[in-house]
Amino acid sequence: MTEVKFYKKAASYWAKVPATVNGVLGGFGHISDIDIDGSRTFLNHLLSLDDPLDTKLALDCGAGVGRVSKYLLVPYFDKVDLVEQDEKFINTAAEVIGQNNVKLGTLYHKSLQKFKPDKKYDLIWCQWVLGYLTNKDLVDFLRKCSKSLAPNGMIIIKENIAPAEELEYDDEDSSVTRPYKQMLTIFNEANLEIIKSEVQTGFPDDIYSVYMFALKPNV
Fold this sequence. Notes:
This protein is α/β, with parallel strands linked by helices. 34% of the residues lie in helices and 26% in strands.
């Protein structure tokens, strides 16, 4: 499959998905609270480090309908920017968070492969979206994010991990699930080091393991 077709097919798939939490979670809306709780615990640990990240500005990548922004990032950060390629999703996210909410930052209606951050972020959160990028575009995206971090800033990645050693392709939504070793290779190519990693608990057994990685530029 060509790169153009890979991206076009994914965009077409999401264009047909309803702008709801259950829609963006592929019918697993019931795990949202467990997911947010796990992310909150992970974030709290990072904020308790001796030299923690600041809480001025966060970026939610592949923000969907604003689920992570509203329930995780907005309570912690002064401002939260969102980037999302699907128009109905990002419009819904603005409504969910509140158009007049002083913490709602800039809304970027863009795909991640075309997005270039132009601010300095304390936290860049990427969840259940990086499987829609090719390996090359993912490395490029992470490098751009790395350059857009404020002092002590971090990138947090939360993604399903393939149980085998090979990448898995989902033809329905045109996404990939990467094995653990490949994720490490990508982080290395993007010159990022893992500060902390953890496996999300409490999810149904029929969901692949979901890992959280806190990353910083390797200097």
